[in-house]
Specification:
The protein has about 120 residues and is an alpha+beta fold. It has one domain: Alpha-Beta Plaits, CATH 3.30.70.3270. It contains three helices and five strands; from the N terminus they run αβαββαββ. Strand 2 and strand 3 form a beta hairpin. The longest helix is centred in the N-terminal third of the chain and has 11 residues. The structure holds iron/sulfur cluster (2 copies). The site of one iron/sulfur cluster has 13 residues, from helix 3.
């Protein structure tokens, strides 16, 4: 009976482990990988990212541009392993992994399929 009360009093003096999200943000390690980002203006439509992806997460889809229709990566982010192989093989380095984890929540799983325009 006494022990739980003692533990409760001790816990009151300890540092909090939780944060007031979203007002407070966790600090992330340098190696943290999250949502992908695409620079559509420099993508050369080579498909290297789609070919290397170990989880078949990337589909090349048609996008209208100033210079006609081009194929660029669409990403099913719910299948992404955040392995960064796609970013490593991308010749112009227009596909990168960011630390933005806040976009990885949705009510409908179809929202996880990101067209090239949504990756910019
Ligand atoms: S990070 Fe890995 S799993 Fe995710 S899209 Fe790129 S290659 Fe595929
Ligand atoms: S590897 Fe890079 S340049 Fe090639 S299609 Fe993918 S994003 Fe575009």
């Amino acid at each position: 009976m006494l022990r739980p009360m003692v533990e409760t009093v001790k816990a009151l003096g300890r540092k909090r482990f939780t944060i007031q999200y979203p007002e407070e943000k966790e600090s992330l390690p340098d190696s943290y990988r999250s949502m992908l980002k695409l620079d559509m203006s420099t993508c050369i439509s080579c498909s290297a990212c789609a070919i290397i992806c170990p989880n078949q997460t990337i589909t090349m889809v048609e996008v209208p541009t100033d210079r006609g229709i081009k194929k660029m990566p669409q990403i099913g982010i719910e299948r992404c392993l955040f392995c960064a192989l796609c970013a490593e093989v991308c010749p112009p380095k227009c596909l990168t992994l960011t630390k933005n984890y806040e976009v990885l929540e949705a009510y409908d799983k179809r929202e996880f399929i990101k067209r090239p325009e949504e990756l910019e």
